[in-house]
Design goal:
Helix content of chain B: 10-25%
Order of helices and strands of chain A: HEHEEHEHEHH
Strand order of the largest sheet of chain A: 2-1-3-4-5
Distance between the termini of chain B: 60 Å
Largest sheet of chain A: 5 strands, parallel
Mean pLDDT of chain A: 83
Structural class of chain B: alpha/beta
Oligomer: heterodimer
CATH class of chain A: Alpha Beta
Radius of gyration of chain A: 17 Å
Shape of chain B: globular
Radius of gyration of chain B: 18 Å
Mean pLDDT of chain B: 87
CATH topology of chain A: Rossmann fold
CATH architecture of chain A: 3-Layer(aba) Sandwich
Helix content of chain A: 25-40%
Number of helices of chain B: 3
Number of strands of chain B: 7
Number of domains of chain A: 1
Number of strands of chain A: 5
CATH superfamily of chain B: NADH:ubiquinone oxidoreductase Nqo5 subunit
């Protein structure tokens, strides 16, 4: 038997490891939380994708899942939770409210969580079906593998500059 | 039973009552905002009516009508089980300042947060309220969003850092 070895670029191998061990922090604010629980329960079993372990501290999480409506008043809180997460980190907007504000068009609702933090994957639906969520999670895994996620600090800085230009962010971390 | 309560209220309040109506068991007394404190006190302290529970306190903006605002009190009697709705008509002052009427907080302590909510969303002040701050919106918010002349599309993003941020 000859010498066995496997060649890969180091970055690809690391990204492969990262995409199958997403520790998520669920930021659940509204009714989408019920659907979120369904995805995480055994029937749809997100553990198959390596993302089964919710950490209820942002400092231990890689993936921020914004589940439900974000109000203007919650914006600074969400931003702070995002800043507390360590690199590398990714975000998912779960449901149409977190993506665009949904059917709320009023004084209190933020039109999408991307008004205060960068978002990698938007999962529409009111609430989204668990299959949609799994699809979104696989899209995120593809992004991580191809380094198209917000793992790049540069992209996130650009988003911050955009928010700053709109007057929606005071302090650049 | 409720119609009896309405009749008794009319009898007690006399000339203070602007109008009344009764629809499917919902009885309403409409009074002027200047008399609201006296009205509520009378309804609460009368032994027959004994309206000792303030179930709800809210407001309505009838934009384009005079008087513009109505502050609505939903009263309930634990003694008789009767319900009574009291509406206080509040006009917007000529100089564009916030309309004001007397607070009900000394009669029912639960009026505290409800009056703060009415102040926050409608901009109606309550004289005698000890701590009339915004309750739902943030302090930086400008205007009163449930007024009909508040622009529907107007957004006021909050860019404040949390207070414990150094």
């Amino acid at each position: 038997m000859g010498l066995e070895f496997y060649t890969s670029r180091l970055g690809d191998a690391i990204n492969w490891a990262r995409k199958y061990s997403l520790f998520q922090y669920p930021f659940v604010t509204a009714c989408c939380g019920m659907e979120f629980m369904a995805v995480w329960a055994p029937k749809y079993d997100v553990a198959r994708f390596g993302a089964e372990f919710p950490r209820f501290s942002p400092r231990q999480a890689d993936l921020l899942i914004v589940v439900g409506t974000i109000t203007e008043r919650q914006g600074p809180v969400l931003r702070r939770i995002y800043e507390q997460m360590c690199e590398p980190k990714w975000t998912v907007a779960f449901g149409v409210c977190a993506s665009t504000g949904g059917f709320y068009q009023n004084y209190s609702t933020m039109p999408g969580a991307d008004q205060c933090i960068p978002i990698d994957v938007y999962i529409p639906g009111c609430p989204p079906r668990p299959e949609q969520v799994l699809d979104g999670l696989m899209m995120l895994q593809d992004k991580i593998q191809e380094k198209r996620g917000f793992v790049q600090v540069r992209e996130r800085r650009e988003h911050d500059e955009l928010l700053k230009a709109k007057g929606k962010l005071k302090v650049i971390p | 039973m409720s119609v009896e309560a309405l009749n008794r209220a009319k009898e007690l309040l006399g000339a203070v009552v602007v109008s009344t109506h009764s629809y499917r068991g919902d009885d309403t007394v409409i009074v002027d905002g200047a008399n609201i404190r006296k009205t509520l006190e009378t309804l609460k302290n009368d032994p027959d009516l004994a309206m000792n529970f303030l179930a709800d306190l809210t407001a309505v903006d009838y934009f384009g009508r005079e008087p513009r605002f109505e502050v609505v009190y939903h009263l309930r009697s634990f003694k008789t089980g009767a319900r009574l709705r009291v509406k206080a008509q509040v006009a917007e002052p000529e100089d564009g300042s916030n309309p004001a009427l007397d607070s009900a907080i000394e009669l029912w302590h639960c009026a505290d947060w409800m009056e703060r909510e009415v102040w926050d969303l409608y901009g109606i002040k309550f004289r005698g309220h000890p701590d009339l701050r915004r309750i739902l919106m943030y302090e930086e918010f400008v205007g009163h969003p449930l007024r009909k002349d508040y622009p529907k599309e107007k957004r006021q993003p909050l860019v404040r850092r949390p207070p414990d941020e150094v």
